[in-house]
Amino acid sequence: MKYLKLLYVQVLIGILAGILAGYLFPSFAHSAQLISDTFINMIRMVIAPVIFFTIVSGIAGAGNLKNAGRIGGKALIYFEIVTTTALIIGLVVANLFKPGVGVAFNNIQPEKAVQIAQQAKDLNWGEFFTHIVPSNIVESFAKGDILQVLFFSILFAIGLKWMGNQGTTLLQSFEKINTVLFNILKIVMTLSPIGAFGGMAYTIGKFGFGSLALLGNLLLTFYVTCLLFVFVVLNLIARFYRFSLWKLLVYILDEILIVLGSSSSEVVLPSVMKKLQDAGCDKEVVCLIIPTGYSFNLDGTTIYLSLSIIFLSQVFGIELSLSQQLSIIGILLLTSKGAAGVTGSGFIVLASTLTAVKIIPIEGLALLIGVDRFMSSGRSIINFIGNSVAAVVIAKSENAIDEELYQRVVVMGLQKEL
Asked: Residue 80 falls within a domain, yes or no?
């Protein structure tokens, strides 16, 4: 019975119960969605302030500005290399397994596809970088815009750093406020099994297992690709930097299961930041890498985008040349950066990419509507794992990690006493 006290066991039970409830009582889907959305909102209410206070105390309290600039530059280079690798893997696997060959373009919802395509037309990816600078920081906090909050937090930390000793009192107050926020988070996380139950019951109740059977080959190809990326690419990176990917995955297992149930990596952002700091990763590194990675290091989303485009080209019998596929990679390198870690955003980005490519009929999106939710969970998990690995990698490369603490907490599994 002692295992029932473990959060990941409780979340796993919630997921299994949600699958059963969704299958037996499909009409429960609406109520289940309310449960899931309420839990996600409880997490989102602390994300923006946690990012702000953590980044300010991390940069102004511990590091220097040159270190922050170097860490940020190194992170962006790492993100670009890894996400490009993810894109290429998605294209290669899709061309090898050909999940779209033989799929009939029928029993679809073309009106839904048109609606999504219209949403995509409203997106201007050329303005993505100018969007980083907020015109109203209060609005940014209210909307939970991670990139804008991150930008403002870095500037605030620099301003506080320039105050020298005069800013010490304010910095101490910020650290106390941050402690309160993480205490709130601990309370909310105890409800994560209920949130996972609601998320899974909604998914199964609304979409059912029938959609899985219809496009099972696509789903299988997607998850095989994700596993290849994690246990080949990320595992090789982990080996190069001399840490165990398996041990890290076990350490963040609670969060992985919560992402699986809620289908959003955003809900565990504050939690994983705290966990990585508890494992010895420098606060300055964690508070820069994790929030930034949620817009620039979406490995699962990039795999989904490249795989889906090739899938749809195969459904319509469109042969894409090597130059066309390279062009798609170039477009995806831009559009994939605009997908935040929010449920369903990858689907809008896919629509935007198809609009830019102008080779594949946008109506093909209708084929993916039924299974998008099932792939959303997968890409959110890969996004989350990729960012967790990135934080450890950058910390290792900067010698900004307490190796003894990391070994004790992550490798030996001895949790730090709080």
From this structure: yes
Helix axes 146-162, 65-97, angle to 10 degrees: 160
Q: Is 418 part of any domain?
A: no
Report the candidate in 347, 339, 338 with the shortest Cα–Cα distance to residue 368: 347
Task: Measure the N-to-C terminal CA separation of the chain; round to a whole number of Å.
Answer: 24
Q: Is position 210 within any domain?
A: yes
- The domain total for the chain is 1
361: amino acid identity, one letter: P
Residue 416 DSSP class: P
pLDDT in tens, 34-54: 998 898 888 888 888 888 888
* Distance (Å, whole) CA 353 – CA 358: 9
Which CATH number is 357's domain given?
A: 1.10.3860.10
Task: State the pLDDT at residue 357.
Answer: 67
Cβ atoms of 313 and 330 closer than 8 Å: no
Write out the residue range of the structural domain in which residue 53 sits: 2-411
Indicate the residue type of 31: S
CB-based contact 364:113 (threshold 8 Å): yes
Does residue 98 lie within any of the structural domains? yes
In angstroms, rounded to a whole number, what is the distance separating the alpha carbons of residues 279 and 389? Answer: 13
Those residues whose C-beta lies under 8 Å from the C-beta of residue 388, and which sit 6 or more positions away, are 248, 252, 272, 276, 290
pTM comes to: 0.82
CA nearest neighbour of 104 among 324, 415, 317: 317
What's the CA gap between 346 and 338, in Å, rounded? 9
How far apart, in whole angstroms, are the C-alpha atoms of residue 50 and residue 57? 11
What CA–CA distance (Å, rounded) separates 165 from 245? 41
Per-residue pLDDT, 106: 55
Q: What is the sign of the dihedral through the CA atoms of 50, 51, 54 and 56?
A: negative
Distance CA 220, CA 25 (A): 26
**Interatomic CA distance for residues 383 and 398, integer angstroms:** 22
Complete DSSP assignment for 5-16: GSHHHHHHHHHH
